[in-house]
């Protein structure tokens, strides 16, 4: 299924996103993704950190063969790369792997080793934000797995919103879900998940900047622990 691609201006897309955010607030995750598939066709993609494949699975039901964009930062846990490979092998999706312009060794040579310790914002900008901006260039809309219950910074995530920085429609179909909802969907549909989720990790990012969470901590507490940093920059 491919939508008829009429030319829309940035203002048209912004208005479309804001209207859809209101109209689809009470829609199911699958209905939101069906709207995205019908509206954008192959100019729509899903991004995945391969923490789990829930949104990719949902999107494949709405748009079989949908592009699933994965950022290979060069710092991932082996389990994350394994999850990506398994998703590509068993799901009706097209995994698109993005890589930074520099390898880790090349970045170390230019900026010094362990940039992620000295300037994590710059490291994320080089290895995540810039590659994603380049990788999303051909799409009009992208879907994420953001949930409102993950942290205070994500509490107001709209199901459909406007990505001002990239000039694209940003879709968060499971924004209203709880962790219990995610687990229910995983169980009912046999969805692939990262093995690290069974080993004390509640949110899986780059290995040097991710730790297991402690009892009572929110899902994002294991990311950049001990720093004020809570987001990599992909989501504002």
Structure description:
The chain has 236 residues and is an alpha/beta fold. The chain contains eight helices and six strands; from the N terminus they run ααβαβαβαααβββα. A six-stranded mixed sheet has the order 3-2-1-4-6-5, with helices on both faces. α2 crosses α3 (54-62). It starts with 9 loop residues before the first helix and ends in a 47-residue tail after the last helix.
Features:
11% strand; 236 residues; single chain; globular; alpha/beta; six-stranded mixed sheet
Q: What's the mean pLDDT score? A: 91
Estimated radius of gyration: 17 Å
Helix content: 25-40%
Q: What is the topology, as strand order, of the major beta sheet?
A: 3-2-1-4-6-5
Topology:
Layout: H1 10-23, H2 29-40, E1 44-47, H3 54-62, E2 66-71, H4 78-90, E3 93-98, H5 104-111, H6 115-118, H7 120-135, E4 141-143, E5 160-163, E6 168-171, H8 179-189
Parallel strand pairs: 1-2, 1-4, 2-3, 4-6
Antiparallel strand pairs: 5-6
Could you give a short description of this structure?
With 236 residues, the chain is an alpha/beta fold. It is 37% helix and 11% strand. The chain is built from 8 helices and 6 strands.
């Amino acid at each position: 299924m491919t939508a008829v691609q009429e030319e829309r201006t940035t203002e048209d897309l912004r208005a479309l996103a804001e209207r859809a955010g209101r109209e689809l607030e009470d829609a199911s995750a699958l209905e939101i993704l069906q709207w995205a598939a019908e509206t954008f066709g192959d100019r729509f993609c899903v991004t995945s950190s391969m923490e789990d494949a829930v949104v990719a699975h949902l999107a494949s039901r709405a748009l079989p063969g949908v592009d699933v964009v994965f950022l290979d930062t060069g710092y991932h846990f082996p389990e994350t790369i394994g999850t990506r490979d398994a998703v590509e092998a068993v799901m009706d999706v097209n995994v698109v792997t993005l890589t930074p312009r520099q390898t880790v060794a090349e970045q170390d040579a230019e900026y010094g080793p362990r940039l992620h310790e000295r300037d994590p914002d710059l490291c994320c900008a080089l290895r995540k934000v810039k590659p994603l901006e380049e990788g999303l260039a051909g799409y009009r809309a992208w879907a994420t797995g953001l949930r409102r219950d993950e942290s205070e910074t994500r509490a107001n995530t709209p199901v459909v919103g406007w990505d001002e920085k990239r000039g694209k429609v940003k879709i968060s179909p499971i924004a209203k879900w709880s962790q219990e909802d995610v687990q229910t969907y995983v169980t009912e549909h046999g969805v692939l998940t990262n093995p690290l989720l069974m080993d004390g990790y509640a949110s899986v990012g780059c290995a040097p900047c991710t730790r297991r969470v402690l009892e009572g901590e929110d899902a994002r507490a294991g990311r950049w622990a001990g720093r004020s940093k809570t987001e990599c920059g992909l989501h504002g």
